[in-house]
Amino acid sequence: MKVCVGLSGGVDSSVAALLLKQQGYDVFAMFMQNWHDADATLHGDCEWEEDRFVAEMVARKIGIPFYFIDLSQEYRQRVVDYMFDTYAHGRTPNPDVLCNREIKFDAFWQAARRLGADCVATGHYCRKEVTQGPDGQPVYHLLAGTDPGKDQSYFLCQLTQEQLASAMFPIGHLLKSEVRRIAREADLPSAEKKDSQGICFVGKVDLPTFLQQKLTPVEGDIVEVYDAYYQQCPAYLFQQETLSSLTPEGHANLITGYVSEDKQTLPGRANVYLPERIAALSDETLLRLSRPLTYDLRFETETYRSGKHHTRKVRYKAHPYGAILGHHEGAQFYTIGQRKGLNIGGHKEPLFVIATDMESNRVYMGEGHHHKGLSRSCLRIAPEDIHEIVPASTPALGEMRRCRVRIRYRQPLQEATLIRRENGLYILFDAPQRGITPGQFAAWYDGDDLLGSGIIES
């Protein structure tokens, strides 16, 4: 069997190629260039040139043919343009998921086939298994990687059965430490190379600078929302009442657990929701439950005199539910849960973005890890955005299913209920989740088996 390895210059794809060669496959390597513009990268140079140089040395060391392909046009059209459009609409995309679906296992695979490849292999930390379906045809399963700290199945959550059929993941059963050891023992040039960071094939970027290539900065207000706001917010009170009605004790926890400085999430109290009460919720109730909170705080100004010359100045009147803290250069440059890059001081606890409003060009913020605006318990995926990896694994219309779900890479899998209705697929988490972000992907699992995914609509 002839296998094309996507050789990136990193240690993971290098060891993938080495193992396949040792196992007797007819292996060749192909390096893809997907990005030319280095203006937005923090390093300010073309990192891909160094990566290509290392990849060539690895191929030579292993003794396999090496090819180069430029897929930058496809990458810009199918990944970067989508990114810009999604951010422009106040949503947050995941370019790594798109790159795998549109480039590595599509455009790259098509190029590999033209060179005679039967399969394409990558250095992802995930596994593949094959079972037989009811019709006797093979069903391909994408499983989490053995290394819990490096499992990359989430990034492949949009792959299809056809794409999985021709995919190989040679290192999915290994720990990262074992991959490094194999690379060192084989004296591979990439053995000590650091893992890549930032946007897939673009590199580590200053995101606002990158987005400003197409999105025009427009100054707007940064608004802090006080805890008192939620005591009179109809949407929040509705969520509190509805979720509480689903529990035996009549009280639901709506706050995510503390997130420490080393990014370890200490889970909040999980709720026990009664299945029969979830099933009784109407489509409209679920839709309201899944919607993120919106904020409509209006601030009035007043004049006052300051200094020994009694200079006339204008300031905002004190507001019981919030305050204008400063200004930003465009709500499209911010994402839910963001902490860094806000340049706002004077608070005891850190500030987080809890909402953005594209119409008013406002960014709303909350103080502290336990701020009510950071947590949500329910999200919706539009019918057209529901993607099944394993056929017939999503609940049928009107049915429910218990699964484990993650909404971001490396997040521990969360217990949840999937609820299928006419207006979409709802995911109701046992424990409230921090920073549910429209535009990102939710992926659901049965054990280690990644069943499907979808774009978070609300």
Give the tags:
458 residues; alpha+beta; Rossmann fold; 24% helix; 27% strand; globular
Written account of the structure:
The chain is globular. It has 10 helices and 20 strands. The protein is α+β, with helices and mostly antiparallel strands and 458 residues long. Strands 5, 6, 14, 15, 16, 17, 18, 19 and 20 form a 9-stranded antiparallel beta sheet that branches. Strands 3-2-1-4-7 form a 5-stranded parallel beta sheet, with helices on both faces. Strands 11-8-13-12 form a 4-stranded mixed beta sheet, with no helix packed on it. The two termini are 45 Å apart.
Question: Helix and strand layout, with pairings?
Answer:
Elements: E1 2-6, H1 11-22, E2 26-33, H2 47-62, E3 66-70, H3 72-88, H4 95-114, E4 119-121, E5 126-132, E6 138-144, H5 161-165, E7 167-168, H6 176-185, H7 207-211, E8 220-225, H8 234-245, H9 275-279, H10 283-290, E9 301-306, E10 311-316, E11 322-328, E12 351-357, E13 362-367, E14 375-381, E15 386-388, E16 400-406, E17 414-421, E18 424-434, E19 441-446, E20 449-455
Parallel strand pairs: 1-2, 1-4, 2-3, 4-7, 8-13
Antiparallel strand pairs: 5-6, 6-20, 8-11, 9-10, 12-13, 14-18, 15-20, 16-17, 16-19, 17-18, 19-20
